[in-house]
């Protein structure tokens, strides 16, 4: 589960070139996702800050708490390791960082930072490096929008596991139905599929690494499926329910999402009609993900399928979003994002129909954009016939 | 799992009084923990921002994505709900916020924000509300340092579940030993205890809510236990191992942590000596948590036990930290934190000894500070005799 050195060499070289263009002497990288992306260090995030410096001259070091030293080293971090003892520290981590930058002749450097840096941290940094010139740059965010072949390989592997997690969820329900035992609860189903995905990671990979999680699952049953954002509950699945399994998995923190809608027992006409529109919107939404179109245009075309079916009042969210080291990242397949689709983006297509008191319908695949057109990375069957669970 | 309205009335009144003192017209609350604390809204965190406004005049509203509306309402959020459709939006969430503040006569308000606000968000906010005056304030962070009786009740309930999770982990190991089957892996043990804790939450409480998680577990076996911060691995527990179970649980997002060190089979003299020092440091560390002392002083006294035993080279971190809605929050029981212990803080006492290549020893309780002295909220047995798992 490790990206090759060649990958890190390439992204660091790309960054260094961009820093020179922007007139920056270096970038101070402060978020776990960007640090994992640029230097291959994956760590447990706490209040103890980690700062990665990448100079326009190629100089690189990573300041971290001492208790991460051995672990960073074992991961083969692509930067020199410098440590501070603890947080908050008699000498603050920021003072240690400043001392290191001064030692490297960077006391009055032009330093870039990402917009995610907190106002509190920036104030502290300005205080300890008064001669430096600070400016915000979204360069790493832009770089992360398109994926390298080594990353796409991990996205594909995550897709395989995500498909298997869906199958594991279905099997749990079928087994309960066969045995005549109680059907699983939302929480029980979620834990089962997450357990399956996590176990698969540990079985298949030697050195398991992640930034936020390995596998995740949201399970919405019956009327709860009409609330796309509630926290899971102890509600037990019932015959007649619409069920949404909304699953994610990440290999080396390269995520995919896969979501399917199931019906427990013979579907009603109402269920059939909502399902058909959700499925059609998703198909149109995926097919629309071709290079050179705007995210807004793709989104509108997808959601128009729902609006044209007279179900626009049941829309609660956009078509989708980019996926990478973070489960949600730019670009956004939404009206407000005018950026163009490029090759090698990984995007979700997940239009939803949410009927209050009745249920929700959402089918999602992770889609790779290519010069040959959109390619799905998740393949679990989508049709109603295939996703009716007979009772 | 819901705090009573009286709690929210009290914290909001306290905040309003503080805003007036600071000369602020209102506070823009932007982090999930602070929003949960002040208004009782617990939600799935994504890129879609949630902004809670609390005016010095008591006016309150919470701007959120439309898909959270029903869920916030069901939770009885203590603020008027205002929604925007989606992220990033043709009209940005920040523009919607600005419009709402202007509508309420706040176009040129003096607005406080927490240091955790990102530089990117602040830049956007300054752009959409050019007449406002923005200043950083740590008022909510300060308020969260001491706990209210309604919160302490939930911390205690979390302590009970955390103790049970430790017992569930031990039972899993004992059952494997009895059956002669393979011992569990780190990942397997972690999933088992987290599953136990999560299930307990759903069984005991009607409306389960959280900000980051319900139950968490880090499991370090054998030589891995000498690395206090590595991600869990597929290593299987072995006879002779030192084992650290580092568990956490949260009821209504009020966390506790409980950590125990076990030895699988008859301990060696080496294991006995490290264990004895870790236990003594933890006892001294807890006993030292009396009102009016500084965090730095308590920390030094605790870690001196390890240093005085000649094991100072095996220290990798401070004694502990505050616990609340976040698993780690101020104050910090560390040399760099000179703040005084007050009544009704919840703190971890978790000194550790990490011997490279051999193993780690860490025992942690969550401790409530009171006028009668420190009170442990976690009670699982601590002694070596009680935590040897016979083979």
From TrEMBL, chains A, B:
It is an enzyme of class 3 (hydrolase). It comes from the Bacteria. Residues 156-370 form the Peptidase M24 domain. Its EC number is 3.4.13.9. Keywords: Dipeptidase, Hydrolase, Protease. Residues 15-144 form the Creatinase N-terminal domain. This is Xaa-Pro dipeptidase. It comes from Conyzicola nivalis. The lineage of its organism: Bacteria, Bacillati, Actinomycetota, Actinomycetes, Micrococcales.
């Amino acid at each position: 589960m490790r990206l090759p050195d060649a990958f890190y060499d390439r992204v660091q070289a790309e960054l260094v070139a961009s820093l020179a263009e922007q007139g920056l002497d270096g970038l101070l990288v402060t978020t776990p996702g960007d640090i994992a992306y640029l230097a291959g260090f994956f760590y447990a995030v706490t209040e103890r800050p980690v700062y990665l410096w990448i100079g326009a001259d190629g100089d690189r070091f990573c300041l971290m708490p001492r208790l991460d030293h051995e672990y960073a080293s074992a991961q083969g971090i692509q930067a020199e390791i410098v440590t501070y003892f603890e947080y908050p520290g008699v000498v603050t981590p920021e003072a240690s960082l400043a001392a290191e930058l001064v030692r490297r002749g960077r006391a009055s450097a032009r330093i870039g930072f990402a917009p995610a840096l907190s106002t509190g941290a920036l104030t502290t940094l300005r205080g300890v490096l008064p001669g430096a010139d600070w400016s915000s740059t979204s360069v790493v965010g832009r770089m992360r929008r398109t994926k390298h072949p080594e990353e796409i390989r991990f996205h594909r592997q995550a897709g395989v596991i995500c498909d298997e997690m869906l199958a594991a969820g279905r099997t749990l329900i079928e087994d309960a139905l066969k045995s005549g035992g109680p059907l699983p609860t939302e929480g029980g189903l979620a834990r089962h599929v997450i357990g399956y995905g996590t176990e698969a990671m540990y079985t298949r990979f030697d050195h398991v690494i992640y930034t936020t999680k390995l596998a995740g699952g949201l399970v919405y049953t019956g009327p709860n499926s009409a609330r796309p954002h509630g926290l899971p509950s102890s509600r037990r699945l019932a015959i007649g329910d619409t069920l949404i399994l909304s699953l994610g998995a990440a290999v080396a923190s390269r995520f995919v999402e896969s979501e399917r809608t199931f019906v427990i027992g013979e579907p009603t006409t109402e269920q059939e009609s909502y399902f058909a529109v959700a499925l059609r919107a998703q198909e149109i939404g995926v097919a629309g993900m071709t290079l050179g179109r705007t995210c807004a245009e793709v989104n509108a075309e997808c959601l128009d399928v729902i609006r044209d079916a007279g179900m626009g009042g049941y829309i609660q969210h956009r078509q989708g979003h980019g996926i990478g080291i973070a489960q949600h990242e730019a670009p956004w397949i939404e009206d407000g994002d005018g950026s163009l689709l490029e090759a090698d983006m990984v995007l979700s297509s997940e239009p939803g129909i949410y009927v209050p008191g009745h249920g929700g319908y959402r089918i999602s695949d992770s889609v790779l954009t290519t010069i040959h057109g959109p390619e799905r990375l998740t393949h679990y069957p989508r049709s109603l016939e295939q996703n009716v669970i007979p009772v």
